[in-house]
Amino acid sequence: MKQELEKLRVSAKERIKKANTKEEIERIKIEFLGRRQGKLTRILKNMKNFPPHKRPEVGKLVNELKQEIQEELKRKIEEMGKEVVEESVDITLPGRKPLLGRLHPITQTLEEIKRIFIGLGFQVVRGPEIETEYYNFEALNMPWHHPARDEYDSFYLDNGYLLRSHTSPVQVRVMEKKSPPIRIIVPGRCYRRDAIDPSHFPMFHQVEGLAVDKRITFSDLKGCLTYFVHQMFGKDTKVRFRPSFFPFTEPSAEVDISCVICKGKGCRVCSGKGWLEILGSGMVDPEVFKKVGYDPEKYQGFAFGMGVERICMLKYGIDDIRLFFQNDLRFLRQF
Ligand code: 2U9
């Protein structure tokens, strides 16, 4: 009997030593110690085959071996557990930096513009990018023969529609549906037949604004846009309103700010002038009001328009509009 137990001891130890997986350990445990068919259990169950005076000794030897195998199994499991941990995680390695996304600089600039005008009580409205000639031109006092159409020339679809060249058609649509007072800004993509160069791209973003009510004056326009410039570029920025022409506003003015680079002294960016043009504006032309059924004697309004790319370029000193559309992460990661 002693020999047989010794054989079992050697074979169990050998098997445990060679085992590589938890499943194998479990199989060995069942094979030797299993409650029904375990090799040692079976010896204990067959105790009646031994002469009575031998039984206590056999029982003692079997139990000792059982304990030994149990301890061996436990040790092996602990050893394997350690190896698994050591292999899978090296806690001394530096952590992996998660790649965080960010908003495109144009989106960031647009959010900032929206924040300023929302603070002044303007509502944000959006509209279709595919428009009719009526909304893109006629309703804005630009009949088919008007030379100003040239500057706003766009891409035409086969069915007579076109890609809007400004967001102004949205303001016309709002006025058709709603009576004054109106205070809206309209952000969105616009399209023009412009040759690509550092300051032109056939698709760009605009924010246009419109305020209509009784007794709106040019002073309201100046106050509103001066506040915008100070919020966007800082309180020290100077603002200048320069007479201009747009078919849909009368009188009209372009808005310049003191150069963000040289602060007005004159440099390469402002071509030595000390001023940079940032937006266009004016009092809504009575002809436009007539088109949407507003009485120009009763209501007045001011309107303005700006290119988001241009505002962003001036704010951050970017010298080429194409950088916004090339998806070069070396550029985009800076914002
Ligand atoms: C309605 C009435 C009037 C919107 C205006 C401008 C002046 C303007 C340019 C800025 C740079 C276009 O993106 S840009 O090239 N815009 O100068 N826009 S007033 O006037 C309107 C709009 C809608 C019904």
UniProtKB/TrEMBL annotation:
<keyword id="KW-0547">Nucleotide-binding</keyword>
<dbReference type="Pfam" id="PF02912">
    <property type="entry name" value="Phe_tRNA-synt_N"/>
</dbReference>
<dbReference type="GO" id="GO:0000049">
    <property type="term" value="F:tRNA binding"/>
</dbReference>
<feature type="binding site">
    <location>
        <position position="250"/>
    </location>
    <ligand>
        <name>Mg(2+)</name>
    </ligand>
</feature>
<keyword id="KW-0479">Metal-binding</keyword>
<dbReference type="InterPro" id="IPR022911">
    <property type="entry name" value="Phe_tRNA_ligase_alpha1_bac"/>
</dbReference>
<dbReference type="InterPro" id="IPR006195">
    <property type="entry name" value="aa-tRNA-synth_II"/>
</dbReference>
<dbReference type="GO" id="GO:0006432">
    <property type="term" value="P:phenylalanyl-tRNA aminoacylation"/>
</dbReference>
<dbReference type="GO" id="GO:0005737">
    <property type="term" value="C:cytoplasm"/>
</dbReference>
<comment type="subunit">
    <text>Tetramer of two alpha and two beta subunits.</text>
</comment>
<dbReference type="Pfam" id="PF01409">
    <property type="entry name" value="tRNA-synt_2d"/>
</dbReference>
<keyword id="KW-0436">Ligase</keyword>
<comment type="similarity">
    <text>Belongs to the class-II aminoacyl-tRNA synthetase family. Phe-tRNA synthetase alpha subunit type 1 subfamily.</text>
</comment>
<dbReference type="GO" id="GO:0000287">
    <property type="term" value="F:magnesium ion binding"/>
</dbReference>
<keyword id="KW-0067">ATP-binding</keyword>
<keyword id="KW-0460">Magnesium</keyword>
<dbReference type="InterPro" id="IPR002319">
    <property type="entry name" value="Phenylalanyl-tRNA_Synthase"/>
</dbReference>
<keyword id="KW-0648">Protein biosynthesis</keyword>
<dbReference type="GO" id="GO:0004826">
    <property type="term" value="F:phenylalanine-tRNA ligase activity"/>
</dbReference>
<dbReference type="InterPro" id="IPR045864">
    <property type="entry name" value="aa-tRNA-synth_II/BPL/LPL"/>
</dbReference>
<feature type="domain" description="Aminoacyl-transfer RNA synthetases class-II family profile">
    <location>
        <begin position="113"/>
        <end position="334"/>
    </location>
</feature>
<dbReference type="InterPro" id="IPR004529">
    <property type="entry name" value="Phe-tRNA-synth_IIc_asu"/>
</dbReference>
<keyword id="KW-0030">Aminoacyl-tRNA synthetase</keyword>
<dbReference type="GO" id="GO:0005524">
    <property type="term" value="F:ATP binding"/>
</dbReference>
<dbReference type="InterPro" id="IPR010978">
    <property type="entry name" value="tRNA-bd_arm"/>
</dbReference>
<protein>
    <recommendedName>
        <fullName>Phenylalanine--tRNA ligase alpha subunit</fullName>
        <ecNumber>6.1.1.20</ecNumber>
    </recommendedName>
</protein>
<dbReference type="InterPro" id="IPR004188">
    <property type="entry name" value="Phe-tRNA_ligase_II_N"/>
</dbReference>
<keyword id="KW-0963">Cytoplasm</keyword>
